[in-house]
Amino acid sequence: MQTDSTARDAITDPVIEVRDLDKTYEGGFKALKGIDLTVRRGEIFALLGPNGAGKTTLISIICGIVNPGTGTVTVDGHDIIREWRKTRTIIGLVPQELKTDAFETVWNTVRFSRGLFGKAPDDAYLEQLLKDLSLWDKRDAKILMLSGGMKRRVMIAKALSHQPTVLFLDEPTAGVDVELRRDMWAMVRRLRESGVTIILTTHYIEEAEDMADRVGVINKGELIVVEEKTALMQKLGKKQLRLQLHEPLSGLPQALSAYGLELNGKRDEITYTYDTQSERTGITALLRDLAAAGIGFKDLSTRQDTLEQIFVELVKEGA
Length: 319
Fold this sequence. Notes:
Blueprint: H1 4-10, E1 14-24, E2 30-40, E3 44-48, H2 55-62, E4 70-75, E5 78-79, H3 84-90, E6 91-94, H4 106-116, H5 123-132, H6 148-160, E7 166-170, H7 178-193, E8 197-201, H8 205-211, E9 214-219, E10 222-228, H9 229-236, E11 238-245, E12 262-263, E13 269-275, H10 283-292, E14 297-304, H11 307-318
Parallel strand pairs: 3-8, 3-9, 6-7, 7-8
Antiparallel strand pairs: 1-2, 1-4, 4-5, 9-10, 11-13, 11-14, 12-13
Helix pairs in contact: 4-6
């Protein structure tokens, strides 16, 4: 396991590099357009985008499932075409679809998956893996008999069976219960601490907000932004100042029109939205002008845009 210092050094080291990647399917549909992306070793990278944006195509190309069109992709310095055997041993993939042998047991499925990658048997590792995923008591159960959430755990166990250093999670918590989602993210954090690089796609943007170090947004086959999560929220997020008034207003005075204020339905709360990156927020001038207009307030609070709101705005701009 990496020490804190080595983990900090490693995170600047690229483990996946995608350069000028295009992909056009038969029929002419262009799924990816000039993708340039670097994923750093040891980070959790969240890839967000609406349905059909190109997330799964991009992941499938890196993992060697879909042939690329033009461009280059390397994993840990190895070209995915020329050195495909090596890159596939480095990568683990948890796909969206639950595909596995329904009539095989959990234990045999995971053990067989490890063998497919040429790894020597290591029952102690697999036992611990199944215990971490709360699957150990189901090791002799046939996949057919498991719930959807348990089948998802088996898919994760298969992806980790050969001890990959890069793990792709394509909508890993789709259709699973809250408890499993919590368990899975705890395991993801442990994997990252051990040096595994995690790339995830998710419809649950609050998960990306909670888990990711960096965020990429893809729309219509184009990567429209890649940014540190906190920097993205500071750069693109808006902040709102909410003022609870002493008395409801019949309307906002014309003198305050420049602030773009919003009055709630009860007319007893004013919302002022401002840019966190501006040199001046305008709050001091607003409070002064409110006082001059004879409008008093009894409480105030602020609220920052969530990653989901930023994502929606980015996709809207790129539409």
